[in-house]
Specification:
single chain, about 450 residues, alpha+beta, Pdz3 Domain, 2-enoyl-CoA Hydratase, Chain A, domain 1, 3 domains, 6-stranded mixed β-sheet, 22 strands, about 30% helix, globular
Amino acid sequence: MGRGAEAVEPAPEMNPLLRAVPLVAAILLASSSPEPAAAIGADHAYAIRSAYAKLTDTFYRTVDARTIADGARAAIANAVRGHGTAGSPPPGEGTASILAAVDAARAHSTLSETALTYAALGGMARAVHDKYTAFLSPHELHDFTAPLTPTHFFGIGVLLAEDEATHDVRASYVPPGTPADGAGVRPGYVFDAIDGVRVRRIGLQRTRAKLLGTRGTVVRVRMLRDGKPIAPFTIARADVHAPTVYEKMLPNKVGYIAVAAFGEPTAQEFGAAIARLQQQRANGYVIDLRFNGGGYVGAAVAIADTFIARGPIVSVSGRTGNQEYDADATAIAPKPIAILVNHYSASASEITAGALQDAGLATLVGDRTYGKGVVQELTYFNDGSALKVTTARYLTPRRRVIDGIGLAPDVAVAENKRARLGEPAADAQLAAALRIIGGKIVSAR
């Protein structure tokens, strides 16, 4: 267990559709006063001390220190039930009492020191009664951060979509620079055969499995364009990753940009997508943030900064003061913008949407957003676990509170049944956004 903290704003755990959640900062926590740690290992003692300091000093609401210690001791006692007894630690306060409780429980139960330390950390986190503050085991931390970190695999680099009726699989998006893009594969092409084996109607997962393989190996793909076979592709597999942003040009030269998560590569991917749409002379933009549960605040600020020429983007208010993030005067030329949102658009999504809405640059279309307006910091430990603590809340440029409220759309449109997001003919919310953008384009002429 080790030392280090990073501010992060995660996606809400309730979002069932996110596969693919900061004020990016590195903060080193100094150990508190060197009270004796009995027989507790140095890493475990440090984790307990740093977690205690994080909760008592930086949790965004004032919390009684005794409550934190009581929560840890109660969790230790609960953990050892059926595994022995919690022992009788000497009376004390603060981290000294928690360390003593771990040591006593270890001496009188069969649980390991790691299990008891985890129990203490979890008890401290739960004691503040905040649904976003939690201790994360190594496995839980991996699951938490996975959507924000590019997943690398060896393949041809194409996003797949399956026809619900026929189970044929098509290329829904071909990221620029991937082997598929270099070979000439384009969105809409249907997979007919892979390495001589027919793949019509076998479904997405089985088709995907045939496209993956060892880096450098060659896969031969036969595809259909508008139902007609085209010359086969010979493509060498390479190290590729699933993008968090993809774009395409829709009718009336409206650029559509879908953002799946605000991860590590998102700001760069978004800038590249905008550049490609500008090269195609886009008349306006639809930014799709539906089912985007959030991620790094820095990515949200960078995307908003693409369009906002001056003024605030978001302000963050914590116990140590307020911090405002302003536009850096590098915005692109203004064009009509609509932002698609729904109940699963949260945290970083709400920062971007709220900033553009307050600036009068975008029309929000869809459903009210989730309403997560608080920021967490992750404090990492050497064994791969971490403590996630709510340290601040954020406000829109017009000082609107989002937490527990969300953003109301300017134009409310319910999602249609069997919607195929990103396809105007089968996506009522997107179709409404295109009508709004079309009207603004005509008015601007």
